[in-house]
Amino acid sequence: xxxxxxxxxxxxxxxxxxxxxxxxxxxxxxxxxxxxxxxxxxxxxxxxxxxxxxxxxxx
Length: 59
Fold this sequence. Notes:
Elements: H1 3-6, H2 14-28, H3 34-58
Helix pairs in contact: 2-3
């Protein structure tokens, strides 16, 4: 299975997800707990999917 087919479809824009990532880091004070790290990883995957979607849309 390709990595693209495993990525969840993003309904939020990359900017929205990026803002949530920034807020998570601010709340965590720069050091993520295990739970925050898991949330961060999911957000990064969602952000990457949103970026890919924006690039495909632009093409």
